[in-house]
UniProtKB/TrEMBL annotation:
Protein name: tRNA (guanine-N(7)-)-methyltransferase
Record pathway: tRNA modification; N(7)-methylguanine-tRNA biosynthesis
Matches recorded under HAMAP family: tRNA_methyltr_TrmB (MF_01057)
Highest taxon listed in the record's lineage: Bacteria
PROSITE patterns cross-referenced by the UniProt entry: SAM_MT_TRMB
Catalytic activities: guanosine(46) in tRNA + S-adenosyl-L-methionine = N(7)-methylguanosine(46) in tRNA + S-adenosyl-L-homocysteine
Chain's role: Catalyzes the formation of N(7)-methylguanine at position 46 (m7G46) in tRNA.
Residues the entry annotates as binding S-adenosyl-L-methionine: E68, E93, D120, D143
Enzyme class: transferase
Listed GO MF terms: tRNA (guanine(46)-N7)-methyltransferase activity
Stated family: Belongs to the class I-like SAM-binding methyltransferase superfamily. TrmB family.
Record-linked InterPro entries: SAM-dependent_MTases_sf, tRNA_(Gua-N-7)_MeTrfase_Trmb, tRNA_methyltr_TrmB_bact
């Protein structure tokens, strides 16, 4: 009986571990996205593997590395990379059309400081990023999973935040943004409950949108509709 109970617990834990914070809606690539993906993925992209990356070798320099989780169609990430050649940008996105869109922007803009992996960010962090390797992690407008029964799918939760803490260097920044007030409150509560983080907000809640975070078309549309946007920035104090 004890062995059966133990096996049941193991199965439940494995199921819980595999709960995704995203739904893979692949969609079809446009001709431009597909051609950029085929042309540039061998140069700027890489496959998931269960071993730590040598980020200095990956980018060909030792510039600080910014990881963006879920870059969507890539407009914000491409703009940041163009504006900050002194930084390296590692983009994580599960949707291939989004990857193709980013690479099309890279082909047009000529950014060389971007690398891309199309895989689950949690597994990339766990297996491909060494401890203390990142200078900043960006999570802009993740799926809010607004229905209460889906809150377990929200990516910002205790185990994820603890994992990020290990991967960030001393003084590294975790920058989040959302247009769902309930999710902003959730993010704030999760971060305040964890040890080792310093809230960069002067009011101990949210920060004004930093100038270096581009405003996306999605965000502009939300502003026209009267939606709010909340930015949170926390520093890893090790």
């Amino acid at each position: 009986m004890e062995s059966i109970l133990s096996a049941g617990i193991d199965i439940l834990q494995e199921f819980q571990r595999k709960i995704r914070s995203f739904v893979r809606r692949e969609g079809r690539m446009t001709a431009g996205q597909a051609s950029a993906f085929e042309e540039l993925m061998p140069k700027y992209g890489f496959e998931y593997r269960s071993e730590a990356l040598d980020l200095k070798d990956l980018f060909g320099n030792d510039h600080p590395v910014v990881m963006e989780i879920g870059f969507g169609m890539g407009a914000s990430l491409a703009e940041q990379a163009a504006n900050n050649p002194q930084l390296n940008y590692l983009g994580i996105e599960v949707h291939r059309p989004g990857v193709g869109s980013l690479l099309a922007r890279v082909r047009e803009g000529g950014q060389t400081n971007i690398r891309v992996v199309s895989h689950d960010a949690v597994e990339v962090l766990e297996h491909m990023i060494a401890d203390n390797a990142l200078d900043r992690v960006q999570l802009f407008f993740p799926d809010p999973w607004h229905k209460k029964r889906h809150h377990k799918r929200r990516i910002v939760k205790s185990d994820f935040v603890q994992q990020l803490y290990r991967k960030l260097a001393q003084g590294g920044i975790f920058h989040m943004a959302t247009d769902w007030e309930n999710y902003a409150q959730h993010m704030l509560e999760v971060m305040q409950a964890e040890q080792g983080w310093v809230n960069l907000s002067e009011t101990n809640d949210y920060v004004p949108r930093p100038d270096d975070r581009p405003i996306t078309k999605f965000e502009k549309r939300g502003e026209r509709l009267g939606h709010g946007v909340w930015d949170l920035m926390f520093k890893a104090d090790k």
